[in-house]
Amino acid sequence: MSAELDMSQYVDLFLQEADEQIEILEQETLKLEEDPTSERLQIIFRAAHTLKGSSRAMGFAGMAELTHEMENVLDQLREGRLLVSTEIADALLQCQDELRQMVVSIREGNGDQGDCSALVAQLQGFVNGSSAPLAMDAAPAAASGPKEESLPLSHELVDTLKQAAEQSPIRQLRVRLNAECVMKFARAYMVTGVLTEVAELLATVPSVEDLEEEKFSLQFIALFQGGPTDDELLAQLKGISEIDSLVLSPWTAEATPELTVASNEAELAPAAPAAPVAPAAPAAPAAKAPSMDANKQAASVSGQTVRVDVTRLDALMNLIGELVIDRTRIAQIGSELGSKFSDPNIDALEETVSHIARITSDLQDQIMKARMMPIETVFNRFPRVVRDLAQKLGKDVKLELVGGETELDRSVIEVIGDPLLHILRNSVDHGLEDPDTREQLGKPRQGRVLVKACHQDNHIVIEISDDGRGIDAERIRKKAVEKGLLTKDQAERMTEREALQYIFSSGFSTAAEVSEVSGRGVGMDIVRSNLQRLGGLIDLETEVGKGSRFVLRLPLTLAIIRGLLTNVGEQVIVLPLGSVVETLLVEAASIQSVNRNEVIVLRGQTLPLVRLNEMFAIHSREDSTEDGQYVVVVGLAERRIGLAVDGLVGEKEVVIKSLSRFCGEVPGISGATILGDGNVALIADVNGIVLKESA
After folding, report:
1. How far apart, in whole angstroms, are the C-alpha atoms of residue 601 and residue 176?
2. Domain locations in the chain?
């Protein structure tokens, strides 16, 4: 290993780990004020410590300095010399904001730019202002030099090593770090990383977990099999800085429990400031080998998780889509052959086809699960937003998050974050009253906001509710008239449900003043546009003085969907089931005309009626309306329309395929799929149809 290391290869790993550690810092700090337990302080301290070590190893001095000062404050909190306060929590959260900015700067190739001197001074002020005396550091090592530490092995590990030694000789490497080493695990990681690359690492003493948590003084031992000669191995290890000595020797059971054999020792001069090493955080799975309480666990623990590029998952999803199409086709062919012929081979074919169908379904489920992410990744952003807004607005807010473990496709996760955030901000800003007003109204001073997620069929339902003032439909009518969106007569005839839909209009707000936060309605057009991209639905329930409740219904995935197959003439048109509200068989006499446009009245609500045969210029069957007109009610966000079709075929899982580039953009069509009989069915663009008819 060369003393000069190319750190560019570690940047991506460093950034991934930094994102994870900052997320831990934020989530745990937000809980710190209400629950300042020693366990939580330890978690926060470890996250800051990990960031400090890896950023210093990567040469990012600004990030290392900031996290070092965070460590000092957290250490005082752990020792009880400082008490958790809102001021300290605010400062720690500001540090995390600054760390995020540094990560962005590093990702853009500009290093950890940023002036954090004010934050550093504030953190130092907390420590220096503490009235309790600081604990004295441990006494330094004797001047006569470092002593060999006792590093006992457990009986279980010794027994395991004895068994392994029967297959191949075992060597032991004792490493003694420099007394000035500030990143002990980083150095230990570099040593175990070399051993993992060139040999089979069996165990470390202390365990890898203890090394990672730096639960050791300055020495540790690695036990391994195979690899290059002693001289060659020592030559590779000498490139690692801040190591005083390396002791390499054969391992025998007689060397236990303290392993003090020293036959081939390389004394190293105290390392000058050396080239930075790979950060401890993004250690390869193999380097995080188990502590070898049992050798049998080594293989299973070392490769439990891997990082996979999302493009590979997308490619797998495309391939499984092709397989689903062929599965359906094979099943249909087998069924047709079985109905025409009676032959043992036909029976065997049907059995094989059935087995392939089950295997394909299981494979599809596994690929889908690999793409799934818990919605908690979105929910984790909310506590900080609510805390900051509540402080800015002088409100007392309790946020409840339920169902964070609910999983949905990565593509949906990427889109849904902003809509939920807009609704949440509006609930806190304009929905909830201030504490004094709530008390006058007979409500608890603390307002409540609930965010809940759960699965229903092939959809995920997300609810955001508050116990605030609610939305006044009459006020919306007046505002819509003022903006010229409605005439006064139209507003008076409008139902409350219809009036509420205007909060989704661009720029519409009932707030008396435009604040830097939001008014109810500001950003709600973004909610609608993002839901339209997903083909989702949104419902709003509200009661003046009681609160509001938004319910979002979203598809789990955008790649393979369940669709409602309908007949339009001789063509099969697929309607995404996520957009289907209900199906009806209405009498022809029930279809009315308003301004030369056909409509139907459904439970007091007037819905536009769109005939798909006219939209797609398809000749309709003559007998299609003998028993009445089939209508599929579809929705987009808060909007509903009826689609007239010739017949309903049933539900089916379909794979969305884009149309050929030679077809260009086809109005009303979003893609196509291949049915079991080999024919192509078109997938309707419900979003586009609804928007066109609602314009």
Report:
1. 83
2. 7-128, 155-299, 310-374, 376-555, 560-694
